[in-house]
Design goal:
The chain is mainly alpha-helical and about 110 residues long. It has one domain (about 5-105): MazG-like (Helix Hairpins, Orthogonal Bundle), CATH 1.10.287.1080. The chain is about 80% helix and about 0% strand. It has helices at about 5-15, 25-30, 35-55, 55-75, 80-95, 100-105. It starts with 5 loop residues before the first helix and ends with a helix. The mean pLDDT is about 95. The protein binds phosphoribosyl ATP. Phosphoribosyl ATP binds near residues 16, 26, 27 and 66. Belongs to the PRA-PH family. Its EC number is 3.6.1.31.
Length: about 110
C-alpha cells in the first residue's frame, strides 16, 4: 500500500502554485484563473464518469487521480484546506454514528 497522501499532494500543489515555474501545470492552471481551473475540474469529473461506465479499471484509476489533483488545485485557489473537507466528512460520519462502528470493525 502506498504511503502517499492527499495532504502531501496538497502541499505540493501549494508549492508549485507559488513557483511561477513555466513548466508547472499547477502554476499554469492557477495563473489561468478559477474559471479555467474549475472547467478543467469538471472535465476530469466527466472523464471519471465515462471511465467508470466503461468498466475500465485502469482508466478509472487514472481519471480519479486527475480528478483529485484538479480538485486540490481548485480548493487551493479558493483557500479551502483539505482538512476543512475532511472535517465536513468526519462530521457527517459522526452524525450517522458510524464512526465508532467502522473503528470497531477494524479491530
Ligand atoms: N497529479 C498531478 C497531475 N495530474 C494531472 N496533471 C496534469 O494535468 C494536465 C491535464 O490533464 P489531461 O488529462 O487533461 O491531459 P491534457 O493532455 O492536458 O489534455 P487536454 O488539455 O487535451 O484535455 C496534464 O498536463 C497533466 O500532466 C497533473 N499535474 C501535476 N500533478 C501533481 O502536481 C505535481 C506538480 O506538478 P507541476 O505543477 O506540473 O510541477 C506533480 O509532481 C504531481 O504530483
Amino acid at each position: 500500500m502506498t504511503e502517499f497522501t492527499l495532504a502531501e499532494l496538497e502541499r505540493i500543489v501549494a508549492r508549485r502554485a507559488a513557483s511561477g515555474d513555466a513548466n508547472s501545470w499547477t502554476a499554469k492552471l492557477v495563473a489561468g484563473g478559477i474559471g479555467k481551473a474549475a472547467k478543467k475540474l469538471g472535465e476530469e469529473a466527466v472523464e471519471t464518469v465515462i471511465a467508470s461506465l466503461a468498466q475500465d479499471r485502469a482508466a478509472v484509476v487514472a481519471e480519479s487521480a486527475d480528478l483529485l489533483y484538479h480538485l486540490l488545485v481548485v480548493l487551493h485557489m479558493r483557500g479551502v484546506a483539505l482538512d476543512d473537507v475532511l472535517a465536513e466528512l468526519e462530521g457527517r460520519t459522526a452524525q450517522t454514528g458510524l464512526q465508532e462502528k467502522a473503528a470497531r470493525s477494524e479491530e
